[in-house]
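Many introductory courses stop at the sequence. We go one step further.
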Amino acid sequence: MELRPTVRAARWIGTVAQRHIFAAGFADTGLSSLATFTIGVFAVRVLAPVELGVYALAYQAIFLVSIVPMSLLFLPAEVAVVSHPPENRVRYLKRSVTLGAIPAVVAGTAAFGWVAVAPAGTPADAMFGLAVTAVAVAILSPVQDHVRRMLHS
């Protein structure tokens, strides 16, 4: 009879911890999505039509090249880590980020590819700013998503 209250308490504590992890992950993902949406609204309101089209090309290039490190390393690492207890998962994070950095940098530099299909009348300063930003985001975004999923899984 002494064991039952302890088992209930352990289940309750586990449930509270899972709710905390879920809530933190939900908030983190929600804020990230809100930031992306806010930048999109800013672009629509501030950029000229040609610049907005170039922004759209850069934005899509980021997502296209982000698939490479995510599919090659980050998602398989996340699937493998789920079989480990939650308290041990963080220790795999450093290794997976280190290994995933190489494909992220290689794929991220390919984000310059959208420049080849940009309209001819695009201002040079807009092309340069969006090209540099696209490469930086294409490298960092898959790593950030991986870290978020590893910490909140």
